[in-house]
Amino acid sequence: MLRNLPFGAPMIGEEERAAVMDVMAGPILVHGPRAVQFEQDFAHFTGAPHAVSVSSCTAGMHLVWFTLGLGPGDEVIVPAQTHTATAHCVELTGARAVFVDADTRTGNIDLDALEAAVTPRTRAIAVVHFLGMPVDMARLMAIARRANLFVLEDCALSLGSRFGGTHTGLIGDVGVFSFYPVKHMTTAEGGMVITHDGDLAARLRLRKAFGVDRTHGERKIPGTYDVVALGFNYRMSEIHCAIGIAQLPKVPGFLTQRECNYGRLSKGLEGIAGLSLLQSTTGVFQSSYYCLSVILDASLATRRAAVVAGLNARGVGTSVYYPQPVPRMTYYQERYGWTDGSFPNAARISDQSIALSVGPHLSEDDMDYTAASLRQVIQELGA
Ligand SMILES: Cc1ncc(COP(=O)(O)O)c(C=O)c1O
Questions:
Q1: For the domain bounded by 14-250, which CATH number is listed?
Q2: Distance 20 CA to ligand 1 centre (A)
Q3: Ligand 1 atom 8: the closest Cα is on which residue?
Q4: Is-above-0.90 flag for pTM?
Q5: Which residues line ligand 1 (CB under 6 A)?
Q6: Strand order in the sheet with 285-286
Q7: Same fold, 14-250 and 252-380
Protein backbone atom coordinates (compact mmCIF):
# COMPACT_ATOMS: atom_id res chain seq x y z
CA MET A 1 0.00 0.00 0.00
CA LEU A 2 1.14 3.52 -0.81
CA ARG A 3 2.51 5.43 2.17
CA ASN A 4 2.94 9.12 2.87
CA LEU A 5 6.44 9.66 4.28
CA PRO A 6 7.36 13.35 4.28
CA PHE A 7 11.07 14.18 4.40
CA GLY A 8 10.56 16.27 7.52
CA ALA A 9 7.72 16.64 9.98
CA PRO A 10 7.89 18.64 13.21
CA MET A 11 7.23 16.47 16.26
CA ILE A 12 4.81 18.77 18.08
CA GLY A 13 2.79 17.17 20.86
CA GLU A 14 0.47 18.13 23.70
CA GLU A 15 3.43 19.33 25.80
CA GLU A 16 4.46 21.94 23.23
CA ARG A 17 0.86 23.05 22.68
CA ALA A 18 0.25 23.42 26.43
CA ALA A 19 3.54 25.28 26.89
CA VAL A 20 2.60 27.81 24.21
CA MET A 21 -0.87 28.32 25.67
CA ASP A 22 0.70 28.86 29.07
CA VAL A 23 2.78 31.74 27.72
CA MET A 24 -0.24 33.16 25.92
CA ALA A 25 -2.19 33.14 29.18
CA GLY A 26 0.39 35.32 30.94
CA PRO A 27 1.73 38.86 30.54
CA ILE A 28 5.34 38.09 29.50
CA LEU A 29 6.02 37.38 25.82
CA VAL A 30 9.70 38.41 25.67
CA HIS A 31 12.48 38.90 28.29
CA GLY A 32 10.97 36.27 30.54
CA PRO A 33 11.83 33.17 32.55
CA ARG A 34 11.41 30.73 29.65
CA ALA A 35 14.40 32.13 27.76
CA VAL A 36 16.51 31.73 30.90
CA GLN A 37 15.26 28.19 31.45
CA PHE A 38 15.67 27.13 27.82
CA GLU A 39 19.28 28.32 27.85
CA GLN A 40 19.95 26.44 31.10
CA ASP A 41 18.30 23.28 29.79
CA PHE A 42 20.23 23.42 26.52
CA ALA A 43 23.50 24.03 28.36
CA HIS A 44 22.76 20.99 30.51
CA PHE A 45 21.85 18.84 27.50
CA THR A 46 25.06 19.60 25.62
CA GLY A 47 27.36 20.03 28.61
CA ALA A 48 28.03 23.68 27.73
CA PRO A 49 29.12 26.16 30.42
CA HIS A 50 27.29 28.97 28.59
CA ALA A 51 24.31 29.03 26.19
CA VAL A 52 22.85 32.14 24.54
CA SER A 53 19.49 31.83 22.77
CA VAL A 54 19.13 33.59 19.41
CA SER A 55 16.38 33.95 16.84
CA SER A 56 18.00 31.49 14.35
CA CYS A 57 21.28 29.78 13.60
CA THR A 58 21.92 32.45 10.97
CA ALA A 59 21.38 35.19 13.55
CA GLY A 60 23.73 33.39 15.95
CA MET A 61 26.53 33.02 13.42
CA HIS A 62 26.18 36.64 12.27
CA LEU A 63 26.20 37.75 15.90
CA VAL A 64 29.43 35.84 16.57
CA TRP A 65 31.29 37.27 13.57
CA PHE A 66 30.00 40.78 14.27
CA THR A 67 31.01 40.54 17.92
CA LEU A 68 34.51 39.40 16.94
CA GLY A 69 34.78 42.54 14.79
CA LEU A 70 35.31 40.76 11.48
CA GLY A 71 35.36 43.11 8.50
CA PRO A 72 36.82 43.96 5.10
CA GLY A 73 40.24 42.39 4.53
CA ASP A 74 39.49 39.42 6.79
CA GLU A 75 38.99 35.89 5.50
CA VAL A 76 37.03 33.03 7.00
CA ILE A 77 37.38 29.49 5.67
CA VAL A 78 33.98 27.96 4.92
CA PRO A 79 33.01 24.58 3.43
CA ALA A 80 31.73 24.71 -0.15
CA GLN A 81 29.23 21.99 0.75
CA THR A 82 26.92 23.72 3.23
CA HIS A 83 23.84 25.88 3.59
CA THR A 84 24.34 29.37 2.23
CA ALA A 85 23.87 30.79 5.75
CA THR A 86 27.37 29.61 6.76
CA ALA A 87 28.92 31.80 4.06
CA HIS A 88 26.41 34.67 4.14
CA CYS A 89 27.09 35.37 7.82
CA VAL A 90 30.76 35.94 7.03
CA GLU A 91 30.04 38.09 3.98
CA LEU A 92 27.50 40.20 5.90
CA THR A 93 30.37 41.59 7.98
CA GLY A 94 32.37 42.61 4.89
CA ALA A 95 34.83 39.76 5.37
CA ARG A 96 35.39 37.17 2.63
CA ALA A 97 34.18 33.58 2.71
CA VAL A 98 37.00 31.41 1.35
CA PHE A 99 35.44 28.16 0.17
CA VAL A 100 37.08 24.75 0.56
CA ASP A 101 35.97 21.55 -1.17
CA ALA A 102 34.46 18.51 0.54
CA ASP A 103 36.08 15.25 1.58
CA THR A 104 34.51 12.59 -0.66
CA ARG A 105 34.18 10.08 2.18
CA THR A 106 32.08 12.16 4.57
CA GLY A 107 31.03 15.34 2.75
CA ASN A 108 32.79 17.30 5.50
CA ILE A 109 35.36 19.97 4.71
CA ASP A 110 38.59 18.50 3.26
CA LEU A 111 41.19 19.17 5.95
CA ASP A 112 44.21 19.02 3.60
CA ALA A 113 42.58 21.64 1.37
CA LEU A 114 41.59 23.65 4.44
CA GLU A 115 45.17 23.76 5.67
CA ALA A 116 46.33 24.91 2.23
CA ALA A 117 43.71 27.70 2.19
CA VAL A 118 45.07 29.48 5.30
CA THR A 119 46.61 32.87 4.43
CA PRO A 120 47.89 35.75 6.58
CA ARG A 121 44.38 37.28 6.27
CA THR A 122 42.59 34.21 7.64
CA ARG A 123 40.92 35.05 10.95
CA ALA A 124 38.66 32.07 11.49
CA ILE A 125 37.21 28.78 10.32
CA ALA A 126 33.50 27.99 10.06
CA VAL A 127 33.13 24.25 10.19
CA VAL A 128 29.94 22.30 9.46
CA HIS A 129 29.23 18.78 10.70
CA PHE A 130 27.69 17.65 7.43
CA LEU A 131 24.45 15.71 7.92
CA GLY A 132 25.43 15.26 11.58
CA MET A 133 28.73 13.45 10.96
CA PRO A 134 31.37 15.23 13.07
CA VAL A 135 34.40 16.72 11.40
CA ASP A 136 37.77 15.40 12.63
CA MET A 137 37.95 18.15 15.24
CA ALA A 138 41.30 16.96 16.64
CA ARG A 139 43.03 17.63 13.34
CA LEU A 140 40.97 20.78 12.65
CA MET A 141 41.79 22.30 16.03
CA ALA A 142 45.49 21.54 15.54
CA ILE A 143 45.42 23.48 12.25
CA ALA A 144 43.44 26.32 13.87
CA ARG A 145 45.68 26.64 16.92
CA ARG A 146 48.86 26.65 14.79
CA ALA A 147 47.52 29.61 12.80
CA ASN A 148 45.76 31.23 15.78
CA LEU A 149 42.31 30.98 14.17
CA PHE A 150 38.92 31.23 15.86
CA VAL A 151 36.70 28.18 15.21
CA LEU A 152 32.92 28.42 14.84
CA GLU A 153 31.11 25.09 14.63
CA ASP A 154 27.92 25.40 12.57
CA CYS A 155 25.91 22.74 14.39
CA ALA A 156 22.65 23.26 12.49
CA LEU A 157 22.62 19.54 11.63
CA SER A 158 24.52 18.17 14.60
CA LEU A 159 22.42 18.31 17.76
CA GLY A 160 23.38 15.05 19.47
CA SER A 161 26.63 14.55 17.47
CA ARG A 162 29.75 13.94 19.49
CA PHE A 163 33.44 13.89 18.69
CA GLY A 164 35.43 11.78 21.15
CA GLY A 165 32.50 11.96 23.57
CA THR A 166 32.26 15.78 23.52
CA HIS A 167 29.13 17.35 22.09
CA THR A 168 29.75 19.21 18.83
CA GLY A 169 29.90 22.94 19.41
CA LEU A 170 32.13 22.56 22.46
CA ILE A 171 35.38 21.67 20.69
CA GLY A 172 35.81 24.90 18.75
CA ASP A 173 35.37 28.35 20.26
CA VAL A 174 31.60 28.48 19.72
CA GLY A 175 28.87 26.16 18.44
CA VAL A 176 25.69 27.48 16.84
CA PHE A 177 22.50 25.40 16.57
CA SER A 178 19.28 25.71 14.55
CA PHE A 179 15.75 24.90 15.68
CA TYR A 180 14.17 25.27 12.25
CA PRO A 181 11.31 22.76 11.76
CA VAL A 182 13.16 19.92 9.96
CA LYS A 183 16.05 19.91 12.44
CA HIS A 184 16.62 17.46 15.34
CA MET A 185 14.33 19.61 17.49
CA THR A 186 12.30 22.66 16.65
CA THR A 187 11.03 25.90 18.11
CA ALA A 188 9.61 26.95 14.69
CA GLU A 189 12.46 29.46 14.30
CA GLY A 190 15.26 29.68 16.82
CA GLY A 191 18.89 28.99 17.59
CA MET A 192 21.46 28.70 20.35
CA VAL A 193 25.12 29.63 20.71
CA ILE A 194 27.19 27.57 23.15
CA THR A 195 30.70 28.28 24.36
CA HIS A 196 33.22 27.70 27.14
CA ASP A 197 34.09 31.40 27.06
CA GLY A 198 32.02 33.34 29.61
CA ASP A 199 33.35 36.69 28.47
CA LEU A 200 32.37 35.98 24.86
CA ALA A 201 28.93 34.76 26.00
CA ALA A 202 28.39 38.07 27.81
CA ARG A 203 29.44 40.06 24.74
CA LEU A 204 27.05 38.02 22.55
CA ARG A 205 24.24 38.50 25.06
CA LEU A 206 24.75 42.27 24.98
CA ARG A 207 24.79 42.50 21.20
CA LYS A 208 21.84 40.20 20.60
CA ALA A 209 19.68 42.87 22.31
CA PHE A 210 20.71 46.26 20.87
CA GLY A 211 23.79 46.62 23.08
CA VAL A 212 21.51 47.63 25.95
CA ASP A 213 23.34 47.48 29.26
CA ARG A 214 20.51 46.31 31.56
CA THR A 215 17.84 43.64 31.24
CA HIS A 216 14.30 44.57 32.30
CA GLY A 217 14.85 43.02 35.73
CA GLU A 218 18.02 45.05 36.28
CA ARG A 219 16.46 48.48 35.64
CA LYS A 220 16.02 50.57 38.81
CA ILE A 221 13.57 52.91 37.10
CA PRO A 222 11.45 51.00 34.55
CA GLY A 223 12.19 52.05 31.00
CA THR A 224 15.66 53.45 31.69
CA TYR A 225 18.83 52.00 30.25
CA ASP A 226 22.00 52.91 28.40
CA VAL A 227 23.41 51.52 25.15
CA VAL A 228 27.06 50.53 25.34
CA ALA A 229 27.56 48.69 22.05
CA LEU A 230 26.18 48.34 18.54
CA GLY A 231 23.78 45.41 18.38
CA PHE A 232 20.76 43.66 16.90
CA ASN A 233 17.44 42.30 17.99
CA TYR A 234 18.26 38.58 17.70
CA ARG A 235 16.24 37.42 20.75
CA MET A 236 13.91 34.42 20.95
CA SER A 237 10.41 35.09 22.28
CA GLU A 238 8.97 33.32 25.32
CA ILE A 239 6.67 31.39 22.96
CA HIS A 240 9.59 29.97 20.99
CA CYS A 241 11.55 29.20 24.16
CA ALA A 242 8.54 27.45 25.70
CA ILE A 243 8.38 25.13 22.68
CA GLY A 244 12.11 24.47 23.08
CA ILE A 245 11.75 23.61 26.78
CA ALA A 246 9.03 21.09 25.90
CA GLN A 247 11.01 19.62 22.97
CA LEU A 248 14.36 19.14 24.65
CA PRO A 249 13.43 16.18 26.91
CA LYS A 250 12.18 14.39 23.79
CA VAL A 251 15.46 14.78 21.90
CA PRO A 252 17.16 11.61 23.28
CA GLY A 253 14.20 9.57 22.02
CA PHE A 254 14.30 11.35 18.66
CA LEU A 255 18.02 10.60 18.34
CA THR A 256 17.56 6.91 19.16
CA GLN A 257 14.82 6.63 16.55
CA ARG A 258 17.06 8.36 13.99
CA GLU A 259 19.92 5.97 14.71
CA CYS A 260 17.65 2.90 14.43
CA ASN A 261 16.13 4.22 11.22
CA TYR A 262 19.54 4.96 9.75
CA GLY A 263 20.79 1.46 10.53
CA ARG A 264 17.69 -0.16 9.09
CA LEU A 265 17.70 1.96 5.94
CA SER A 266 21.39 1.46 5.21
CA LYS A 267 20.87 -2.29 5.58
CA GLY A 268 17.89 -2.16 3.26
CA LEU A 269 19.92 -0.37 0.61
CA GLU A 270 22.66 -3.01 0.58
CA GLY A 271 23.18 -4.61 -2.78
CA ILE A 272 21.41 -1.93 -4.84
CA ALA A 273 23.76 -1.28 -7.73
CA GLY A 274 24.75 2.27 -8.57
CA LEU A 275 24.55 3.71 -5.04
CA SER A 276 27.10 4.64 -2.44
CA LEU A 277 26.68 6.10 1.05
CA LEU A 278 28.73 8.70 2.88
CA GLN A 279 30.55 7.48 5.97
CA SER A 280 28.58 7.86 9.16
CA THR A 281 29.38 7.01 12.80
CA THR A 282 32.78 5.36 13.26
CA GLY A 283 34.70 5.17 16.55
CA VAL A 284 35.10 8.64 18.01
CA PHE A 285 32.79 10.16 15.39
CA GLN A 286 29.20 9.87 16.72
CA SER A 287 26.68 11.12 14.16
CA SER A 288 23.27 12.57 14.92
CA TYR A 289 21.89 10.97 11.72
CA TYR A 290 20.28 14.02 10.20
CA CYS A 291 19.37 12.07 7.04
CA LEU A 292 20.80 9.38 4.79
CA SER A 293 22.16 10.74 1.52
CA VAL A 294 22.62 8.19 -1.24
CA ILE A 295 25.13 9.17 -3.92
CA LEU A 296 24.11 7.89 -7.34
CA ASP A 297 26.92 6.79 -9.61
CA ALA A 298 27.57 8.99 -12.63
CA SER A 299 25.28 7.17 -15.09
CA LEU A 300 22.35 6.81 -12.69
CA ALA A 301 22.79 10.45 -11.63
CA THR A 302 21.81 11.62 -15.12
CA ARG A 303 18.37 10.23 -14.20
CA ARG A 304 18.21 11.61 -10.67
CA ALA A 305 15.03 13.57 -11.42
CA ALA A 306 13.33 10.35 -12.54
CA VAL A 307 14.52 8.49 -9.43
CA VAL A 308 13.19 11.28 -7.20
CA ALA A 309 9.89 11.35 -9.13
CA GLY A 310 9.57 7.57 -8.70
CA LEU A 311 10.18 7.81 -4.96
CA ASN A 312 7.81 10.74 -4.55
CA ALA A 313 5.13 8.89 -6.54
CA ARG A 314 5.42 6.09 -3.96
CA GLY A 315 4.96 8.63 -1.17
CA VAL A 316 8.64 8.74 -0.17
CA GLY A 317 9.63 12.35 0.48
CA THR A 318 13.18 13.34 -0.49
CA SER A 319 15.47 16.35 -0.41
CA VAL A 320 18.96 17.33 -1.56
CA TYR A 321 21.67 18.47 0.88
CA TYR A 322 22.71 20.89 -0.42
CA PRO A 323 21.34 21.71 -3.86
CA GLN A 324 24.55 23.42 -5.01
CA PRO A 325 27.99 24.02 -3.56
CA VAL A 326 27.56 27.55 -2.14
CA PRO A 327 30.23 29.09 -4.44
CA ARG A 328 28.23 27.82 -7.43
CA MET A 329 25.12 29.75 -6.32
CA THR A 330 24.55 32.74 -8.63
CA TYR A 331 25.35 35.32 -5.95
CA TYR A 332 28.76 33.83 -5.14
CA GLN A 333 29.57 32.96 -8.75
CA GLU A 334 28.97 36.58 -9.75
CA ARG A 335 30.86 37.90 -6.74
CA TYR A 336 33.96 35.74 -6.97
CA GLY A 337 33.82 34.27 -10.48
CA TRP A 338 33.92 30.66 -9.39
CA THR A 339 33.51 28.36 -12.39
CA ASP A 340 31.70 25.09 -12.53
CA GLY A 341 34.28 22.47 -11.64
CA SER A 342 36.00 24.52 -8.92
CA PHE A 343 34.67 22.28 -6.13
CA PRO A 344 34.27 18.82 -7.72
CA ASN A 345 33.64 16.83 -4.54
CA ALA A 346 31.01 19.23 -3.23
CA ALA A 347 29.46 19.29 -6.73
CA ARG A 348 29.29 15.48 -6.82
CA ILE A 349 27.27 15.51 -3.60
CA SER A 350 24.98 18.30 -4.82
CA ASP A 351 24.45 16.87 -8.30
CA GLN A 352 24.36 13.14 -7.63
CA SER A 353 22.76 12.68 -4.21
CA ILE A 354 19.27 12.13 -2.91
CA ALA A 355 18.60 12.72 0.78
CA LEU A 356 16.31 10.15 2.38
CA SER A 357 14.66 10.85 5.71
CA VAL A 358 15.46 8.89 8.86
CA GLY A 359 13.50 11.32 11.04
CA PRO A 360 11.66 10.27 14.20
CA HIS A 361 8.30 10.75 12.48
CA LEU A 362 9.14 7.57 10.56
CA SER A 363 9.35 3.94 11.75
CA GLU A 364 11.82 1.19 10.92
CA ASP A 365 9.08 -0.36 8.81
CA ASP A 366 8.96 2.92 6.85
CA MET A 367 12.69 2.48 6.25
CA ASP A 368 12.05 -0.95 4.70
CA TYR A 369 9.41 0.67 2.51
CA THR A 370 11.83 3.47 1.51
CA ALA A 371 14.58 0.99 0.61
CA ALA A 372 12.19 -1.28 -1.32
CA SER A 373 10.82 1.75 -3.18
CA LEU A 374 14.28 2.89 -4.23
CA ARG A 375 15.17 -0.63 -5.37
CA GLN A 376 11.99 -0.85 -7.47
CA VAL A 377 12.41 2.62 -8.99
CA ILE A 378 15.97 1.86 -10.08
CA GLN A 379 14.91 -1.50 -11.50
CA GLU A 380 12.05 0.08 -13.42
CA LEU A 381 14.40 2.64 -14.88
CA GLY A 382 16.43 -0.30 -16.15
CA ALA A 383 19.57 1.11 -14.59
C1 LIG B 1 24.47 23.96 7.96
C2 LIG B 1 23.40 25.00 8.18
N3 LIG B 1 23.74 26.16 8.75
C4 LIG B 1 22.82 27.12 9.00
C5 LIG B 1 21.49 26.95 8.66
C6 LIG B 1 20.52 28.06 8.93
O7 LIG B 1 19.76 27.80 10.06
P8 LIG B 1 18.57 28.79 10.50
O9 LIG B 1 17.44 28.52 9.54
O10 LIG B 1 18.22 28.40 11.90
O11 LIG B 1 19.08 30.17 10.40
C12 LIG B 1 21.09 25.76 8.07
C13 LIG B 1 19.67 25.57 7.72
O14 LIG B 1 19.25 24.57 7.21
C15 LIG B 1 22.06 24.76 7.82
O16 LIG B 1 21.72 23.60 7.24
A1: 3.40.640.10
A2: 24
A3: 57
A4: yes
A5: 56-58, 82-83, 85-86, 128, 154, 156-157, 178, 180, 191
A6: 166-167, 162-163, 285-286
A7: no
pLDDT of residue 128: 98
Planar angle of CA 308, 312, 313, nearest 5 degrees: 115
CA 154 to ligand 1 center in whole angstroms: 8
Distance between CA atoms of 343 and 276, rounded to whole angstroms? 20
Instruction: Give dist(CA 231, CA 210) in Å, integer.
Output: 4
For position 382, what pLDDT does the model report?
83
Q: Where are the domains of the chain?
A: 14-250, 252-380
What's the 57 CA to ligand 1 centre distance in angstroms? 6
Residue-wise pLDDT tens digits, 168-200: 999 999 999 999 999 999 999 999 999 999 999
Superfamily of chain region 252-380: Aspartate Aminotransferase, domain 1 (3.90.1150.10)
Low-confidence ranges of the chain (pLDDT < 70): 383
